[in-house]
């Protein structure tokens, strides 16, 4: 074989998004450590220009290019407007990011992204940045974190469903929705109207609508809630995977979903055998096994 023949290295990544407080930065840190234990060649890129409380050391940090504080100071913008400006600035300076990524030896990237949901629901800067990365060979997926306590209040859960669906459609990438902080489900279990699998599998949402009809404060929003539910059920795309970042088993189960979403399971990896790929296939696990592995650890005994 010609020694000059170049073999293209497969490049993978996950975009970690979610509302403020959903645990994105903690997730990035924990998943990074988990991948390291698997001998995966991984690094973290911080693309949140306002992220001042990182639990990890990013290989690339957008705050070297621009910060929210800089944008607020120089353009007299509020926090949200400054963040929008920063993302648009990053899009215009995409070559800065690309050159730094080309110098990295990692073939798997965790992107820690800002928490403002409008960046993923209707703003185009983030979508454009990652579409460009895809054109350079990165196989990406989005990991959307939603706090588990949303399950305890029907109106919040319906809102989370709408945001998740909108982000899935706008970003245009393979998508994994996650119920983060699943260890806190026990604290909210008494307020949850249904079992946890009702929320993760997004079963018949008419039951949620019916539960809100008894509360006067939601009556004037009845038609709006019905329209949102109809939209979510019409697309039939949203489901959730529970996650407790302090449980290795929980991280491992989410890893399988993410590896399937971005194609890592079919590429060069730490476990290269047909059984591993089959384990990621739909239907490879019985409903009873799924209940024991995904739900039982988070319920009261």
TrEMBL record:
Official protein name in the record: GPN-loop GTPase 2
SUPFAM superfamilies hit by this protein: P-loop containing nucleoside triphosphate hydrolases
GO molecular function annotation: GTP binding; GTPase activity
Gene3D superfamilies: P-loop containing nucleotide triphosphate hydrolases
A Gene Ontology cellular-component term: cytoplasm
Pfam families linked to this entry: ATP_bind_1
The keyword Lipid biosynthesis is annotated on this UniProt entry: no
Superkingdom, taxonomy of origin: Eukaryota
Sorted UniProt keywords: GTP-binding, Hydrolase, Nucleotide-binding
Membership in a protein family: Belongs to the GPN-loop GTPase family.
Organism: Chironomus riparius
Oligomeric and partner information: Heterodimers with GPN1 or GPN3. Binds to RNA polymerase II (RNAPII).
Known role: Small GTPase required for proper localization of RNA polymerase II and III (RNAPII and RNAPIII). May act at an RNAP assembly step prior to nuclear import.
UniProt keyword GTP-binding, yes or no: yes
């Amino acid at each position: 074989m010609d020694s000059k023949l170049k073999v293209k290295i497969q490049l993978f990544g996950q975009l970690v998004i979610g509302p403020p407080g959903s645990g994105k930065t903690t997730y990035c840190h924990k998943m990074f450590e988990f991948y390291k234990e698997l001998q995966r060649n991984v690094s973290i890129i911080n693309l949140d220009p306002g992220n001042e409380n990182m639990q990890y050391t990013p290989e690339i940090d957008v705050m070297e290019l621009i910060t929210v504080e800089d944008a607020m100071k120089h353009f007299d913008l509020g926090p949200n407007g400054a963040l929008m400006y920063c993302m648009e600035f990053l899009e215009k300076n995409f070559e800065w990011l690309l050159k730094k990524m080309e110098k990295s030896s990692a073939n798997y990237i965790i992107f820690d992204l800002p928490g403002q949901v409008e960046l993923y629901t209707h703003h185009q800067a983030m979508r454009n940045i990652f579409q460009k990365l895809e054109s350079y060979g990165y196989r990406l997926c989005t990991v959307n974190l939603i706090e588990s306590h949303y399950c305890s209040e029907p109106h919040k859960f319906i809102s989370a469903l709408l945001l998740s669906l909108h982000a899935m459609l706008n970003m245009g990438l393979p998508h994994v929705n996650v119920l983060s902080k699943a260890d806190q489900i026990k604290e909210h279990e008494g307020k949850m109207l249904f079992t946890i699998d009702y929320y993760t599998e997004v079963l018949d949402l008419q039951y949620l609508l019916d539960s809100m009809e008894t509360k006067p404060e939601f009556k004037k929003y009845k038609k709006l809630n019905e329209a949102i539910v109809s939209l979510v059920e019409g697309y039939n795309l949203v489901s959730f995977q529970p996650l407790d970042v302090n449980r290795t088993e929980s991280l491992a189960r989410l890893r399988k979903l993410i590896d399937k979403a971005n194609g890592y399971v079919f590429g060069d990896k730490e476990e290269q055998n047909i059984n591993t790929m089959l384990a990621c296939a739909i239907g490879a696990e019985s409903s009873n096994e799924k209940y024991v592995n995904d739900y039982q650890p988070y319920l009261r005994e």
